[in-house]
Amino acid sequence: MPIREATTKDWTAIWPFFHEIVAAGETFSYPLDLGESQGREWWMQTAPNRTVVAVDEAGTVLGTAKMGNNQSGNAGHVATASYMVDPARSGQGVGRALVEHTLDWARTAGFRAIQFNAVVETNTYAVKLYESLGFTILGTVPEGFRHPAQGYVGLHIMHRPL
Q1: Which structural domain range is residue 15 located in?
Q2: Among 27, 89, 98, 145, which residue's Cβ finds the most Cβ atoms within 10 Å?
Q3: Inter-residue contact 103 to 131 (CB < 8 Å)
Q4: Domain count, the chain
Q5: Are the beta carbons of 62 and 55 closer than 8 angstroms?
């Protein structure tokens, strides 16, 4: 599955599923009414951070990831990333390809580890995917996320050495 740097033109393909995922309020801690311009500002990273898209043979955007350093200064050697897959494309390996791409990028960029700060515990597909790729749950913030259907649920902090 081709994965390439996202361009400003890709935002028009990302925004519909980005908006759907954020508005559902089940996996991201973004405001549910996040507007398009603010969403673009938060998602479309600039160097040295980056945003990528996974595409099919026709160039259709299937999913996206943003990645960079989790902290700066003396903690700048730990990467982080976030992922969104078009819900119409779930179950096709898009998320796995994006995470594997991120791991390769982080190693090449010289990061020593990657940490996810807020993985909603009810996002079981993501948790299982990350664990299958070597991530462990370091801890869980009890009731750290207000899920629209399940109420207050935990937020995992997940980590993987590189």
Answers
A1: 3-161
A2: 98
A3: no
A4: 1
A5: yes
